[in-house]
Amino acid sequence: MKFAIVFVALFGLALAAPAEEASIVRSISNVNADGYQFAVETSDGKAHSEEGQIKNPGSEDEAISVKGQYSYIGDDGVTYSVSYIADENGFQPQGAHLPVAPIA
Fold it and tell me: Fewer CB within 10 Å, N- or C-terminus of the chain?
């Protein structure tokens, strides 16, 4: 019983330990009336870039179309990358580590 109490206490301390903070090493953004672009990279290996454009401006079908990508280094040391499109058909991610739905 004492072991369990000590184990839980040590586990709680490990979870409460402050995480290493990352800093931004690159940041670019451009916003205008027709859309936007941004890119950001952090010191811990994360990166995210995206651009969005308005489709059919001023019409009843006006919508935004977005494409982008992000990557990060997993706990296993592998870099994971995802590219995506988000438009009137929904969010459509692609990545080597993501499952693919079977073709019906």
Answer: C
